[in-house]
């Protein structure tokens, strides 16, 4: 091999290496989910999954005492009751909006969507569409792309990129998951210990709409207050997370 040909082959290999490296990095960039607000301020996002249900009234009573705002990631099957159960669910969800909490999308049926991206898209779209209608009834204009989305079971799969694109959302909302979803294995002390030890600037905390929340939530919010923490969610105005920073992995 002559010298110039050797040089060409070398450069070719170098470019191939750079290309492979860059491609690999981009395919590794699969952080469709956000876990926190990028901020140096003492602010936390409190979120409750699986409602809306009458239990949320108790949760809102507690939040109200502290003037803390949450995000409720409800399922479509529960939001549908807004239009169907003679005003019971409507009263709860309208109160969420009225008191400045955010409504999020936690799929329609709370299934496992690992193998069915198309079904996932239809369910998420239907649920966000319903949430947009509920906001509209309450005099607030939002787009489907404004509605925060959280996967059931915080599941993660390759179809999330497609879903993100189709739903025109910038991210899925994840966060720190404690074990408040099963009080038979995780009592008040353990739940409090988990959430308190994971409290940090910008943290997103994942909790659930469960009756047991009334046992530990007041203590946790006392702790937040004592530590000087504020809350943020997705509503426009004083409590919007964008007042602090962007959402990051
Ligand atoms: Zn859930």
From TrEMBL:
The species this protein was found in: Spiroplasma monobiae MQ-1
InterPro entries: Glyco_hydro/deAcase_b/a-brl, NODB_dom, Polysacc_deacetylase_ArnD
TM segment ranges: none
Keywords: Hydrolase, Metal-binding
PROSITE patterns, sorted: NODB (PS51677)
Annotated protein name in UniProt: NodB homology domain-containing protein
Gene3D superfamilies from the UniProt entry: Glycoside hydrolase/deacetylase
GO cellular component entries: membrane
GO biological process: carbohydrate metabolic process
Domain annotation NodB homology: ranges: 42-232
Molecular-function GO term, any one: hydrolase activity, acting on carbon-nitrogen (but not peptide) bonds
């Amino acid at each position: 091999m002559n010298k110039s040909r050797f040089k060409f082959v070398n450069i070719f290999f170098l470019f191939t290496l750079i290309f492979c490296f860059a491609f690999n990095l981009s395919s590794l960039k699969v952080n469709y989910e956000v876990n926190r607000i990028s901020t140096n301020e003492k602010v936390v996002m409190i979120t409750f999954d699986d409602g809306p249900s009458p239990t949320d009234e108790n949760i809102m009573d507690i939040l109200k005492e502290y003037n803390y705002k949450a995000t409720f990631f409800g399922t479509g099957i529960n939001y549908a009751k807004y239009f169907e159960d003679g005003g019971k669910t409507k009263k709860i969800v309208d109160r969420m909006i009225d008191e400045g909490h955010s409504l999020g999308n936690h799929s329609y049926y709370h299934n496992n969507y690992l193998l069915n991206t198309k079904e996932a898209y239809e369910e998420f779209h239907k649920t966000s569409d319903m949430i947009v209608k509920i906001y509209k009834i309450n005099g607030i204009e939002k787009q489907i792309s404004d509605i925060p989305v959280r996967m059931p079971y915080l599941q993660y799969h390759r179809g999330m990129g497609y879903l993100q694109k189709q739903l025109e959302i910038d991210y899925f909302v994840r966060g720190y998951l404690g074990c408040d979803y099963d009080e038979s294995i995780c009592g008040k002390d353990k739940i409090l210990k988990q959430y308190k030890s994971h409290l940090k600037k910008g943290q997103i905390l994942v909790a659930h709409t469960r009756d047991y929340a009334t046992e530990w939530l007041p203590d946790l919010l006392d702790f937040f207050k004592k530590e000087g923490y504020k809350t943020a969610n997705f509503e426009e105005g004083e409590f919007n997370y964008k007042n602090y920073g962007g959402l990051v992995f």
